[in-house]
Design brief:
Layout (H helix, E strand, L loop, with lengths): L3 H7 L11 H8 L1 H7 L4 E8 L2 E6 L4 E5 L2 H10 L11 E7 L2 E3 L3 E3 L8 E5 L3 E2 L2 H9 L1 H7 L6 H11 L5 E4 L2 E2 L5 H9 L4 H10 L12 E3 L5 E3 L19 E4 L8 E2 L2
């Protein structure tokens, strides 16, 4: 497989056309055009993973391109629900039409219609220390998300958990003093606890889904769960994609967007 960076640096080749990363290469080269169909402008590239890439927009939102069917289904459903403080908000979800290359014709890694562009909130992910405090102390996180535990008991648990002088940041990092910074960080989340619990319950977010890699803060300092994708969001039912907005078309008509 050719790395996406190499594709972007070297451009088109006959070998590249049949590489698994070619779809993302094709999309990346045309990402400004995609953003314009949402009346947005690209500010910077944020990064990506196995199933897509994300860009920050000048409006402060994020444009994500993905072919993950569960994430697409979740985004299409969450977009129609009332906005929540602690769950990522989705504003627009559009399918990208078939790629066309003049040398080879239509092409898509699986099915060209698998690729979807999503407009969503920008969230600042946890930094490395925050990830450690959230994930390493699993029992603290479970207690924080447990409605049956009163706030006063939760605060006591935070204090006792980080009072141990053996550990600085976790069981593998020894220190000579209690981790006051971690304890204060957890305490700073207490005012949000009730609404976090209520919204996680409403959106069926389980504590093992809300790991440090998909938690962060919005511009107001609110704790936010992002990167929603699990089928468990909707119980044991298979997630199905709801009606999406107008399709992004590589050969636009006068409006720049092709209706479905």
């Amino acid at each position: 497989m050719i790395k996406l960076k190499q594709l972007l640096e070297q451009g088109w080749s006959s070998d590249a056309m049949h590489d698994d990363n070619y779809d993302l290469y094709y999309i990346t080269r045309r990402i400004q055009y995609i953003a314009e169909q949402f009346h947005e402008q690209i500010e910077s590239h944020l990064g990506g993973g196995a199933n897509g890439l994300a860009w920050k927009l000048k409006s402060g939102k994020v444009l994500k391109v993905t072919d993950d069917s569960n994430e697409i289904a979740s985004a299409s459903r969450f977009r129609t629900r009332p906005k929540a403080q602690h769950i990522i908000s989705y504003y627009d979800v559009r399918r990208i039409t078939e790629f066309w290359n003049p040398k080879t014709g239509p092409y898509g890694r699986n099915n060209p219609n698998d690729w979807v562009a999503i407009i969503m909130d920008y969230v600042t992910p946890f930094d490395e220390s925050q990830k450690l405090w959230w994930d390493r102390y699993e029992y603290v996180k479970r207690a924080y998300l447990d409605q049956s535990i009163p706030d006063a008991v939760m605060v006591e648990q935070i204090e006792s958990s980080f009072r141990d002088t053996r550990f600085k940041n976790g069981p593998d990092e020894y220190g000579s003093a209690p981790n006051v910074e971690a304890a204060n960080w957890w305490k700073s989340l207490m005012p949000q606890r009730k609404t976090v619990i209520r919204e996680f319950s409403s959106f069926r977010v389980k504590d093992n889904e809300a790991h440090g890699g998909n938690m962060g803060f919005d511009s107001f300092g609110q704790l936010v769960h992002f990167d929603i994708w699990s089928k468990d969001q909707f119980g044991y039912r298979q997630t199905k994609t709801r009606n999406l907005n107008r399709t992004i078309d590589w050969t636009p008509d006068s409006t720049g967007i092709k209706d479905i």
